[in-house]
TrEMBL record, chain A:
Keyword Transferase carried by entry: yes
GO biological process assignments: alginic acid biosynthetic process
Protein name: D-alanyl-lipoteichoic acid acyltransferase DltB, MBOAT superfamily
InterPro entries, per database record: Ac/AlaTfrase_AlgI/DltB, AlgI, MB_O-acyltransferase, MBOAT_fam
Source organism phylogeny: Bacteria, Pseudomonadati, Bacteroidota, Chitinophagia, Chitinophagales
Sorted UniProt keywords: Acyltransferase, Cell membrane, Membrane, Transferase, Transmembrane, Transmembrane helix
GO cellular component, one term: plasma membrane
Cellular localisation: Cell membrane
Gene Ontology molecular function terms on file: acyltransferase activity
Organism of derivation: Chitinophaga jiangningensis
Domain of life: Bacteria
Membrane topology: Multi-pass membrane protein
TrEMBL record, chain B:
Lineage of the organism: Bacteria, Pseudomonadati, Bacteroidota, Chitinophagia, Chitinophagales
Protein name as it appears in the record: Uncharacterized protein
Amino acid sequence: MVFNSFEFALFLPIVFILYWLVAKGSLLFQNLVLLAASFVFYGMWDYRFLFLLFFSILLDYTSGLQIHAAKTPRARQWWLFASIVINLGFLFFFKYYNFFVDSFSDLLRTFGLQPHVWTLKIILPVGISFYTFHGLSYVIDIYREKVTPTRNFTNYALFVSFFPLLVAGPIERATHLLPQIEQPRRFELSKAADGLRQILWGLLKKMVIADGCAFYSNQIFDNPHTYSGSTLVVGAVLFAFQIYGDFSGYSDMALGIARLFGFELLRNFAYPYFSRDIAEFWRRWHISLSSWFKDYVYIPLGGSREGRFKAIRNTFIIFLLSGFWHGANWTFILWGGIHALYFLPLLLANRNRKNMEIVAQGRRLPSVPEAWQMVRTFALVTFAWIFFRAESMQEVAVYISGIFSASLIEMPVIFPKGLLLLTALFLLAEWQGREYPYALANLEPRWPRPARWALYTVLLFCLILLKSEQQQFIYFQF
Amino acid sequence: MRTFLIRLLIFSALFAGLVVIAAYKLAQPGEMDYVGGIVVKHKRLNEIKGPRLIFAGGSNMAFGLDSKAVEDSLKIPVVNLALHGGLGLDFMLEELKDVVRNGDVVILSPEYFLEAGRYELDAAVAAFMPASKKYFKHDFYTVFKYGVESRFTQIGYNRDYLMARWRKRNAPPERDYAAEVYSHKAFNSYGDVVAHLDLPSYGAPKVPLKLYAGYWDGIPKINAASRILAQRGVKFYFVFPAFCASSFNNNAATIANLEATLHRDLQIPVISGPQDFVYPDTLYYDSYYHLTKTGRNLRTQQLIKLVQPLTAQLHGEKMLLSNR
């Protein structure tokens, strides 16, 4: 079940009514409603993987309690180690087993050996990377004594499996979400209305922008050898908007749905394409994953505290790991490596924390240098997306060599003017809303209700008339 | 909470009213009428008393077969039951299970990786031939879902219709080829699409198609149907679809994998290779699968060669009938 499906349009109101009207006044009952809804939501993908999800929850719940109760540091370490190994073991098996087997056998072949390859037909459980990281952060935070483990199994299970974030994040922290689960929640009109607005904006991003761009970018990426350099550039730019609309649209919907139930989830996107350098981009793109790697990998490795060399090494490690987290393919690892390379000059010049504030804050337009910096950063990010989108290194080579050919100056064969105009309008809306959590967040109370309702009606008709063929959410495969 | 629900209900009611108005049926795409071709096909099926040679599948076969030439060559009554890939493999197989009888020979030619059908097309067929309702799922939930979604889809059709009219406002009236080809009147009495044969062709689309590369879930469905057809004394065969050269070359590895999988897992004989019906893009009328007159003639001759050895059984049946 996906957020932009008919099934979900029926599922959400049912859960909403059960939660606020039937289970009203009972925190336990409300949490049970959400937990049951989350398992139904997940089970509709593939009910067999509910057991895996349940086991993962049980493992981390038990580990958390055992770490907290352990009398000796050794016992604490043992439970932490066991939890990390089992969690990562599942992730490795389902996501990376075939990749390692294939890569190892390729390596042996380069030495003239003929290995007997034993790969498995493994179905990747949707959301495994996300819920594994939820569980790991919980256990590590308990080990670090940042969090006291909950004894309430329902609350912990809901923390991991809460349906808006279960399959594609944001990757939550126990310090942020668990207290919300443990506290009674009151219905707030403005919060619920804001949630619906954010869902609407997320749907537009996904169904109009992302799916529209996907229609053309898929054509171009599927046949890179048949297109001119200029068309390949158009394809890469369209993919940049596809993945942004797809993932940030999903995150907007997740945040909006959670708000309908009285929860505030971590923000995952903050207008990343208005970034002035790569460091700023990574503070604004998939924020919950970047901060996860920072807190649980980068800082424990020493961060930037132990000299420039270690800072560079640690930066490369987290970018390569981040690439690998996205998928079992060398293209993702290289994508991470390219971003690390982009980061390098900023680290060497100690300018990685230069652009911390919102671009052109309090002004309508950016200055010329700011505009140039944004265009430059977007171009770098878009180039790296080619690695992310291509299915193999051969495809990357074909695509990039195609771009840097004489045909770069030809008129592109595919140039969807209507869609590009729509994307420009969308960017304009995002630009005017960049000081707020999402583009429509500042409508209330500035716009009177009739004007707001008229706008919602127009946007809903845009959804009906401008939506493209439904594409799977890109991040579900991770 | 009460205020929220009241406001939400008022807004939803207003919006639903606007949707109902905007979804007033101004126009529908040609394929909704095209699928009415099922009537002529079933008429022919019922007219023939003895065993028949039935070609089934999607529009690749509807556009790409000269049934009369096959009939004249093999001296066996032929029915082209193939209609539209959008109806889905389940529809085609259910239809076959319903119409076949002892002694029939069935040649199935679905498009590559054909999946479940589109309910709106299935429902459009049922509007022409109510008996076809048994070929697709139409439980309460599906009908309800379609009822809602079709309103939204209709708004899109209306938009396209109005935009086309606006574009044509100052242009001289042109012959509407698409309306002629995608119509229930496009078929001859055998069930072949013939309306396009003498029209100028557009060729296959310039951008090659990229095929899905996983395991085709149509294989177990065909196997299940084959067991039922075998019980009824029907010979059932599989042939690859007509496919334009550019898309074939673009998916050569995927199609080779599929061919190997079909030979391994399909429980009915695969009597052609995928390359047998690959023709230059210029021999396609307007899609990756729809052949022009020349392409159709070439494919028909190849099909005759492939099917000839299989029809001995039908000749035997005919002899038996005439002796009686």
